[in-house]
Amino acid sequence: xxxxxxxxxxxxxxxxxxxxxxxxxxxxxxxxxxxxxxxxxxxxxxxxxxxxxxxxxxxxxxxxxxxxxxxxxxxxxxxxxxxxxxxxxxxxxxxxxxxxxxxxxxxxxxxxxxxxxxxxxxxxxxxxxxxxxxxxxxxxxxxxxxxxxxxxxxxxxxxxxxxxxxxxxxxxxxxxxxxxxxxxxxxxxxxxxxxxxxxxxxxxxxxxxxxxxxxxxxxxxxxxxxxxxxxxxxxxxxxxxxxxxxxxxxxxxxxxxxxxxxxxx
Length: 265
Hints:
Blueprint: H1 3-12, H2 26-44, E1 54-58, H3 64-70, E2 76-81, H4 84-96, E3 102-106, E4 119-125, H5 133-146, E5 147-157, H6 177-180, H7 183-193, H8 205-210, H9 217-226, E6 230-238, H10 251-255, E7 256-264
Parallel strand pairs: 1-2, 1-4, 2-3, 4-5
Antiparallel strand pairs: 5-7, 6-7
């Protein structure tokens, strides 16, 4: 075992184990996602009204958040995801909740099967960081295409400099572990720890880590600028809610927990 792996394992033992909700089964994860949706909705609520609107949940996953939003009075909410396993869970959960105003489609976000100017609202919850760079640009352009004039794209994601951006919270508890250690070290430590984790579509836990696009705040800002989005709001959720940290150069990017954006054409 390499020295860096020993150090990582030793450091990992210094931090409390994190218990993430919904790890018992894919169904439990969907239920947990439904519970987390309120926090996401609260971020957008000042800028949108879902009542009687046609909404797209882009990258809907197992549909927990889709169903939550459906209960907010949408005329129709459509979930789209590339993973058929997740979509099966979404359909099952929607049926379980007796929701009538949902539809689910299998497809890639960079080529969506919808007419232009279809949706009042497009949601991208915890999706931006999971899409490869070239595809992400196309996916954002597609989201812009399918919203109506005056419609809004609502998104949130952890930038790569965020303390938990590696998505390894099931087994590596070190904040900013992906900044402190190389990919090779982290992957070997993951293999050593053999974590139990929820089903991540068709990806293994390591593949799920490797597919992250590692997008930073500045890279995202450049991307939406190049795509000529109108920015209604672009805000940053700071660790411990310490908003003043955003004004401290260098440190601010590491202290940003999540990026929240509301965009339009």
